[in-house]
Amino acid sequence: MNKKDVATIIEILNKTYPNAKCSLNFDTPFQLVVAVCLSAQCTDERVNKTTPLLFKRCKTIEDFANIDINELEELIHPCGFYRNKAKNLKLCAKQILEKFNGEVPKNIDDLVSLAGVGRKSANVIMLDAFGIATRYCC
After folding, report:
1. Please, is 55 exposed, middle or buried when counting C-beta atoms within 10 Å of its C-beta (0-12, 13-18, 19+)?
2. Tens-digit pLDDT profile for residues 53-111
3. How far apart are CA 64 and CA 96, in angstroms?
4. What is the C-alpha separation between 35 and 33, in angstroms, rounded?
5. Which contacts (CB < 8 Å, 24+ apart) does range 11-19 have?
6. What is the pLDDT of residues 114-138, one digit of tens each?
7. Contact 126, 132 (CB under 8 A)
8. Residue 23: which pLDDT band, with cuts at 50, 70 and 90?
9. Is the confidence at residue 12, as pLDDT, over 90?
10. Nearest to 42 by CA among 110, 138, 116, 130
């Protein structure tokens, strides 16, 4: 596929879905990181039903880093794979606090260095949290 074909496809998608936006509910870049991580092997609808209570309990990145792992597992249990997701969310929060001064990084390489964040997730975060479309593909 050449650049002209890609441009044509993007134009068609933009005309077909002019107001496309992320279906995950979030208020901050870190909340989007959490929601995207929870969405693995889970529907966005289920994530959106789970995150209000989670975000009420954990209002800051520090809250995620410090929450008891068992409590976090219980809060995210409906999203499936809750043990691994809880472990990754806590580690991700600690990484952001320690390596990025408490700010979600705004570049792909740093995002994919976070626990639980792969390339696809990083692209979603870049676009929907920061409005930055990337060429770094899955």
Report:
1. buried
2. 999 999 999 999 999 999 999 999 999 999 999 999 999 999 999 999 999 999 999 99
3. 11
4. 6
5. none
6. 999 999 999 999 999 998 887 655 4
7. yes
8. very high
9. no
10. 116
pTM greater than 0.90 (yes/no): no
The CA distance from 133 to 127, in Å, is 5
Cα gap 110→96, rounded to integer Å: 10
Both tokens of 86, joined, read: 């809880």
> Where does 27-130 sit in CATH, by number?
1.10.340.30
Amino acid, single-letter form, for residue 5: D
Residue whose C-alpha is closest to residue 93's, from 124, 122, 117, 121: 117
Helix 29-38 to helix 44-57 angle (10° resolution) is: 130
Determine the pLDDT at residue 137: 53
Nearest to 133 by CA among 42, 41, 20: 20
Structure tokens at 54: 């989670």
Q: Which two tokens stand for residue 56?
A: 């009420």
Instruction: Please give the Cα distance from 55 to 117 (Å, whole number).
Output: 19
